[in-house]
Write a structure and sequence with these properties.
Low-confidence stretches: none
Distance between the termini: 55 Å
Number of domains: 1
Helix content: 10-25%
Largest sheet: 5 strands, mixed
Number of helices: 2
Order of helices and strands: EHEEEEH
Strand order of the largest sheet: 4-3-2-1-5
Number of strands: 5
Shape: globular
């Protein structure tokens, strides 16, 4: 089984839907123009189609690009909707949760509270 490592520090998601006829070259251009990132940075860049049943992951590995794809047969990916930026960053663990069907945008912990006294 091929899965991204949970130890990845940063994974970038393109929030906008992507035409899945795009291959490596087209997605690399989106990394530069839409995500404003370096496609050669050895980070993972994740894209989703309009129906939310396919994900493509593009990354640079030493001497060339790699493209990984997952297609769901019945379910849909829980893709981030309303966020301020075009780019959403996740950890490797969160990416695997997304691939497993979790809504990673709702897995937020409670706000950390700070008190100086109980009186």
């Amino acid at each position: 089984m091929m899965r991204p490592s949970n130890e990845l520090p940063v994974v970038y998601l393109c929030r906008e839907v992507v035409d899945f006829r795009k291959g490596i070259n087209g997605l690399a251009v989106l990394v530069e123009t839409v995500l404003c990132q370096d496609p050669f940075s050895e980070q993972l860049f994740v894209f989703c189609n309009r129906k939310r049943d396919k994900i493509k992951i593009l990354y640079w590995e030493h001497s060339g690009f790699c493209l990984w794809q997952k297609r769901l047969e019945q379910a849909r990916f829980k893709w981030p909707g309303k966020v301020e930026n075009e780019v959403v960053s996740l950890t490797g663990q969160q990416l695997n949760w997304l691939l497993d069907g979790y809504d990673v945008m709702r897995l937020q912990p409670h706000e950390k509270l700070h008190y100086s006294s109980v009186l």
